[in-house]
Specification:
With 383 residues, this protein is α+β, with helices and mostly antiparallel strands. The chain contains 20 helices and 4 strands. A 4-stranded mixed sheet has the order 1-3-4-2, sandwiched between helices. The protein is globular.
């Protein structure tokens, strides 16, 4: 049994707090932990029943916490991500998954002594920069970041890779519920994290990634109250959309592509769809970008979006893109760091299996398939 020692209610409270933060009712948690009834877990949380080591380990896994969280007296509180969703949804469970991923990822970087680079993208902007003409500033910022990251003529093809490997953002794809696009967080201990809905179409994920990038860049500019809970289009959320449009549809490259696509200086519905496919964004994003660039009028864009067969045509032309495989759950960089740490003896096989959510029996096969067999670590003899 684990005794509480000094501060007799500390462990009890942490157990209860961890369950609530993970979004489990006491009945649901008790069932998943294998207790015969919820009263057993209730007694543990109240401190009237001692907890054994096996039970604590099971709780740590279920609640997405390390054992240090329960056993150490000084543990930092969880950072609060910004959520993007279309309706009020309980995100506690997925938030804990997200933060647990960031904690594991951060630990791998620390063990390998890797530096973080995410602050390189945070420019010296403040609230006043957006007070006069915030939409113009957001568009300008998108252009600046496109150049700074060297994203090329088709940014959506490069954005994910650049953020993960150049800036070392920690990006997780999870199948989220309807109406939930994702989240972002900046924390000095964990770095930058972005969560994207793996169920969304590729072009939607591209736009959401760029949208969250705006929040990362302006993390210290707007307050959480100004940004809102993700369910309404607040001014900062509108700025984020303008930024994403500017970043993913750079003016020069978009207009060049339009000249190649349109004939006789007339833009057809099919041209809009082709541009959307080419730039990896939605047709709506292309239309509103052309409106902002004063290429077409707002009334025309609205008319196109209201055309009965427009969305059917769009879906039919993108059908093969819908059928492509979805994104990998974990970033390739995260997988590589975990493999390196295991091969170099910095983490145990058990920790490796938990980080990558696989069975221990699969570890050797997993390493081989990732290119981390023993021969990969053979030393090269000096000439």
């Amino acid at each position: 049994m684990i005794s509480k020692g000094k501060g007799e209610n500390v462990l009890d409270k942490k157990i209860a707090d961890a369950r609530e933060a993970a979004g489990f009712s006491i009945t649901e948690a008790a069932q998943k932990l294998g207790f015969k009834n919820y009263q057993t877990l209730s007694a543990i949380e109240k401190g009237t029943r001692k907890i054994n080591a096996h039970e604590l380990i099971m709780m740590a896994r279920l609640y997405g916490r390390s054992l240090d969280y329960f056993l150490e007296s000084d543990v930092a509180s969880d950072p609060l991500p910004l959520w993007r969703k279309t309706k009020k949804t309980d995100t506690n469970k997925v938030q804990r998954q997200f933060l647990s991923f960031l904690e594991n990822y951060s630990n791998l970087e620390r063990l390998l002594g890797l530096k973080r680079r995410w602050k390189d993208v945070q420019k010296n902007y403040d609230r006043d920069d957006f007070s006069v003409n915030g939409f113009e500033q957001a568009e300008k910022l998108g252009t600046e970041i496109h150049s700074f990251l060297d994203l090329g003529s088709r940014p959506s093809l490069n954005l994910l890779n650049v953020l993960e490997n150049k800036l070392r953002f920690k990006i997780l794809h999870l199948p989220l519920g309807d109406g939930v696009s994702g989240a972002s967080v900046v924390d000095n201990a964990l770095g930058v994290g972005i969560l994207i809905n793996a169920n969304d179409a590729l072009w939607r994920r591209n736009f959401d990634l760029a949208h969250e990038l705006f929040h990362i860049i302006t993390w210290n500019v707007f307050s959480p109250e100004e940004i809102g809970n993700g369910t309404t289009k607040t001014r900062p959320e509108q700025y984020a959309d303008i930024f994403a449009s500017s970043l993913l549809l750079p003016e020069v490259h978009l207009l060049d592509a339009l000249k190649e696509t349109a004939t006789d200086n007339e833009i057809r519905i099919i041209d809009i769809i082709e541009l959307a496919k080419e730039f990896g964004v939605s047709t709506e994003a292309v239309l509103w970008r052309l409106v902002n660039l004063k290429i077409i009028k707002k009334t025309l864009a609205s008319k196109v979006l209201e055309t009965p067969n427009f969305h059917d045509l769009d879906r039919d032309m993108r059908q093969k893109l819908y059928e492509k495989d979805g994104p990998s759950r974990f970033p390739s960089r995260f997988i590589s760091l975990a493999c390196r740490c295991l091969m170099e003896g910095k983490i145990s096989r058990g920790a490796f299996a938990e980080y990558l959510e696989i069975d221990r029996a699969e570890i050797d096969y997993y390493l081989e398939s990732a290119g981390f067999g023993e021969e990969s670590y053979a030393k090269i003899a000096a000439a």
